[in-house]
């Protein structure tokens, strides 16, 4: 059985109070970080026609943005550790706002790559890591619920490019809510090189639980976003009217919005919290199965049902994805671990949607991308389930061996005392 969550902070988190205001701020900034790629997909058909781009070229817009957002994880963690979450989230909101407003004047695909992908991705990276880190400082017992509420921001914030740019300036307000925790002890100042080494700690690869988590998440991330990017286009290809096709994403987002806090609440229960890694595995398999079933029926009613179950399973995964890393690594190691995880996951994040787009261009059929994404995600979920069973078995075995070793040392010491006396 997995161990109970440990408090490694050196103080008891509030698990409430101003922490709930921090959750509001994280809800806003994380919401924009994950909702933006969904919003962009609504415009892909028009952008594709106006700029005469292929499906894979269009998919690079979201992929670059997500990859930059994840690749900037270690830098964001480093800045948060030095300056705190408040100014970093405010800076991220400013970059996001500028990127979307300038993108609204673009007339080439490369221009959109730069504005939305690079500049916007940098801003989202600052928002995401700063928000995740500060939640781990304010919560322990209620942390799954806090993470669920914060991650619920993703399906809430939708809008057009120009309006979204103005809305994203609200991340500056969100950052102002992230009042830093007062220091509980004074530590000597670290120079920049040592601090950088702290946030690129490759000793994590010696941790079996971390490696298992990372492999499963890489598989999930590869297949996670292509169904979102191409859902509207797939529906239109099946003869669905354009407005109704875009409405599918709204259905997904609406379900997702309520599922994330509900999942966090369930994960906080005494029955699920010790088994949260298995709960996460189930959510991934559920998500992948939805994608595998999507191409089998072509009616709009079925697509609505798919969108609802997609939102349900997607919301479950993302309510748990960072909580599971906190559960494995603990609060102290989490900022370093999440920076390393995000920079590695930027590669499947970058390649997933364009690879799906290539399948569409090659077969002239959207169904194959759903089969590919579903298969990869189900594989990741099953891998996590089986390997977590193995990991916890080995942890129990190693713990028992350590206890036997300590008992043997104690007995030998006792025998030496008896002989000397």
UniProtKB/TrEMBL annotation:
One of its GO terms (cellular component) is basolateral plasma membrane. InterPro entries: MFS (IPR011701), MFS_trans_sf (IPR036259), Proton-linked_MCT (IPR050327). Pfam families: MFS_1. It is found in: Basolateral cell membrane. GO terms for molecular function: monocarboxylic acid transmembrane transporter activity; symporter activity. Keywords: Cell membrane, Membrane, Symport, Transmembrane, Transmembrane helix, Transport. SUPFAM superfamilies: MFS general substrate transporter. PANTHER family: MAJOR FACILITATOR SUPERFAMILY (MFS) PROFILE DOMAIN-CONTAINING PROTEIN, MONOCARBOXYLATE TRANSPORTER. Belongs to the major facilitator superfamily. Monocarboxylate porter (TC 2.A.1.13) family. This is Major facilitator superfamily (MFS) profile domain-containing protein. It comes from Gasterosteus aculeatus aculeatus (three-spined stickleback).
């Amino acid at each position: 059985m997995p161990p109970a969550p440990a408090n490694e902070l050196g103080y008891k988190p509030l698990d409430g109070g101003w922490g709930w205001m921090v959750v509001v701020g994280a809800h806003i900034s994380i919401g924009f970080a994950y909702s933006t790629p969904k919003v962009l997909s609504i415009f892909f058909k028009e952008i594709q026609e106006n700029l005469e781009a292929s499906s894979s070229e269009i998919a690079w817009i979201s992929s670059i943005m997500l990859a930059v957002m994840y690749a900037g994880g270690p830098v964001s963690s480093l800045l948060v550790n030095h300056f705190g979450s408040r100014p970093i989230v405010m800076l991220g909101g400013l970059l996001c706002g500028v990127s979307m407003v300038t993108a609204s004047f673009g007339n080439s695909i490369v221009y959109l790559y730069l504005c939305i992908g690079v500049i916007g991705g940098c801003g989202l990276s600052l928002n995401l890591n700063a928000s995740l880190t500060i939640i781990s400082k304010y919560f322990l017992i209620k942390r799954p619920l806090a993470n669920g509420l914060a991650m619920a921001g993703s399906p809430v914030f939708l809008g057009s490019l120009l309006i979204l740019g103005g809305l994203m300036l609200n991340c500056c307000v969100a950052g102002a809510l992230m009042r830093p925790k007062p220091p509980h002890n004074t530590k000597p100042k670290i120079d920049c090189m040592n601090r950088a080494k702290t946030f690129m700690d490759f000793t994590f690869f010696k941790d079996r639980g971390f490696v298992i988590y990372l492999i499963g998440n890489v598989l999930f991330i590869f297949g996670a976003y292509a169904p979102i990017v191409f859902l509207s286009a797939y529906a239109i290809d099946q003869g669905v009217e354009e407005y109704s096709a875009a409405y599918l994403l709204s259905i997904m987002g609406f379900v997702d919005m309520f599922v994330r806090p509900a999942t966090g609440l369930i994960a906080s229960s005494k029955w699920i919290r010790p088994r949260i890694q298995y709960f996460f595995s189930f959510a991934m398999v559920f998500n992948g199965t939805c994608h595998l079933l999507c191409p089998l029926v072509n009616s709009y009613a079925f697509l609505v049902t798919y969108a609802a179950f997609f939102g349900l399973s997607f919301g479950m995964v993302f309510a748990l994805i960072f909580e599971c890393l906190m559960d494995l690594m603990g609060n102290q190691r989490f900022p370093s671990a999440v920076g390393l995880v995000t920079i590695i996951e930027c590669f499947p994040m970058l390649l997933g949607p364009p690879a799906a787009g290539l399948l569409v261009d090659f077969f002239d059929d959207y169904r194959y991308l759903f089969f590919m994404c579903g298969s990869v995600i189900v594989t990741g979920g099953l891998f996590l389930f089986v390997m977590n069973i193995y990991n916890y078995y080995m942890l129990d075995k190693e713990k028992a061996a350590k206890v036997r070793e300590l008992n043997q040392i104690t007995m030998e010491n006792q025998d030496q005392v008896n002989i000397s006396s």
